[in-house]
């Protein structure tokens, strides 16, 4: 085997870990903190024209005031489907249909709901940690294969340390993001 076959692609490992972080940020953005944000609609898909479609591809999403999200649905036939998708999503907002507009009044969060949301945020963070650890495991498997193909013990140790360093950094970023999101949720 060539030396190239014995090298581990740390960039690919780091990209995959960054992908887990990007997914976590998206999930955190979907958590309501008592302020209106168009990102709360990102995870919601609508059965439109025979396929699942994000709401922002069916209408214009605006935040005209701190406690209101407004969706201007382009196709009038889709209004009821968008409304139903929002109701069924579990985000805890009751849409109000007003002609082609769907208004989403964002209620104040009570203490119990804030506590629930911090637990949901912790679940999202744990999913990100699991994804990062899976990437680490894949990297360690690459190192074991390279060792079997003739990688030296010293190189194996060096690559293992590199993968572990990337993992530790990514987990630390997840933990900081979780702390920040929980503080944001609990801030009244």
From TrEMBL:
The gene is frr. Belongs to the RRF family. Pfam families: RRF (PF01765). CDD domains: RRF. It is found in: Cytoplasm. InterPro entries: Ribosome_recyc_fac (IPR002661), Ribosome_recyc_fac_dom (IPR023584), RRF_sf (IPR036191). HAMAP family: RRF (MF_00040). GO terms for cellular component: cytosol. This is Ribosome-recycling factor. It comes from Cereibacter changlensis JA139. GO terms for biological process: cytoplasmic translational termination. Responsible for the release of ribosomes from messenger RNA at the termination of protein biosynthesis. May increase the efficiency of translation by recycling ribosomes from one round of translation to another. Signal peptide: none annotated.
């Amino acid at each position: 085997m060539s030396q190239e076959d014995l090298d581990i692609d740390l960039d690919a490992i780091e990209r995959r870990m960054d992908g887990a972080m990007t997914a976590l940020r998206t999930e955190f953005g979907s958590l309501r903190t008592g302020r209106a944000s168009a990102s709360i609609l990102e995870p919601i898909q609508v059965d439109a024209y025979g396929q699942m479609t994000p709401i922002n591809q069916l209408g214009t999403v605006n935040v005209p005031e701190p406690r209101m999200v407004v969706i201007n649905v382009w196709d009038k036939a889709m209004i009821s489907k968008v409304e139903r998708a929002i109701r069924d999503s579990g985000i805890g907002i009751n849409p109000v249909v007003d002609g082609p507009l769907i208004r989403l009044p964002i209620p104040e969060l009570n203490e119990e709901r804030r506590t629930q949301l911090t637990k949901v945020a912790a679940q999202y963070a744990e999913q990100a940690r699991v994804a990062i650890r899976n990437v680490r495991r894949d990297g360690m498997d690459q190192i074991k294969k390279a060792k079997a193909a003739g990688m030296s013990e010293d190189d194996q140790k060096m690559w293992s340390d590199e993968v572990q360093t990337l993992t530790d950094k990514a987990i630390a970023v997840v933990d900081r993001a979780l702390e920040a999101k929980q503080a944001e949720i609990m801030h009244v």
